[in-house]
Specification:
The complex is a heterodimer of chains A (114) and B (115). Chain A has 114 residues and is an all-beta fold. Chain A is built from no helices and eleven strands. In chain A, the strands form two sheets. In chain A, strands 2, 4, 5, 6, 9, 10 and 11 form a seven-stranded mixed β-sheet that branches. Chain A has a four-stranded antiparallel β-sheet with strand order 1-3-8-7, with no helix packed on it. Chain B starts with a strand and ends with a strand. The chains are: A mainly beta (114), B mainly beta (115). The interface between A and B is medium-sized, with 23 and 22 residues.
């Protein structure tokens, strides 16, 4: 399966600042996804990022808060803007790899906002 | 809409005990079902999957059977090891909604195995 890396692995940020998280895949993939896992909670999809088109956001998530780029088939970024403590979460990217409807996840970025 | 209901944890078992983690789902279309595992400090790993009714997914001694009649996908293992301690997530993806392949996750079950 695809090997997925994320940068940074963790960060501590101040309220009001922004952080950009990078997701790199070792092979070309059509679909990439960004999820959020709040402390002690399950995963929630933020948006789907397809190369060459605007990201599709889920209900409750907006582009101004979570802008996403997808410049090619191996890379994507998620920015968490104007952060507040409620944004403290693990952010994970995933890709559709071998077969449809089967996703593989990166190691995650653990974000703490103070 | 789609939803996944998972057995609440935490679950604590002794080594070599039998494990069952219950998972039931609600889906409007034709879901594929998955179990993911998250070891401490790591990301999610796909443990096993099933794409249609009566399919059995298996991996690392874990099994789960796609039961359409009971809308269930319970995870089982005959003899657990300390290394199985992790959080387990049941998830579904709706195959009837091609192009919108979001995974819907259950709340996760934390499993601790005691030597």
């Amino acid at each position: 399966s695809a090997v997925i890396s994320q940068k940074p692995s963790r960060d501590i940020c101040q309220r009001g600042t922004s952080l950009t998280i990078q997701c790199q895949v070792d092979s070309q993939v059509t679909m990439m996804f960004w999820y959020r896992q709040q402390p002690g909670q399950s995963l929630t999809l933020i948006a789907t990022a397809n190369q060459g088109s605007e990201a599709t956001y889920e209900s409750g998530f907006v582009i101004d808060k979570f802008p996403i780029s997808r410049p090619n088939l191996t890379f994507s970024t998620l920015t968490v803007s104007n952060m507040s403590p409620e944004d403290s979460s693990i952010y994970l990217c995933s890709v559709r790899d071998r077969g449809p409807y089967e996703q593989y996840f990166g190691p995650g970025t653990r974000l703490t906002v103070t | 809409g789609n939803s996944v209901t998972q057995m609440e944890g935490p679950v604590t078992l002794s080594e070599e005990a039998f494990l069952t983690i219950n998972c039931t789902y609600t889906a409007t279309g034709y879901p594929s079902l998955f179990w993911y595992v998250q070891y401490p400090g790591e990301g999610l790993q796909l443990l096993l999957k099933a794409t249609k009714a009566d399919d059995k997914g298996s991996n690392k001694g874990f099994e789960a059977t796609y039961r359409k009649e009971t809308t269930s996908f319970h995870l089982e293992k005959g003899s657990v090891q300390v290394s199985d301690s992790a959080v387990y997530f049941c998830a579904l993806s709706d195959r009837s909604n091609f192009g919108n392949e979001k995974l819907t996750f259950g709340t996760g079950t934390r499993l601790t195995i005691i030597p």
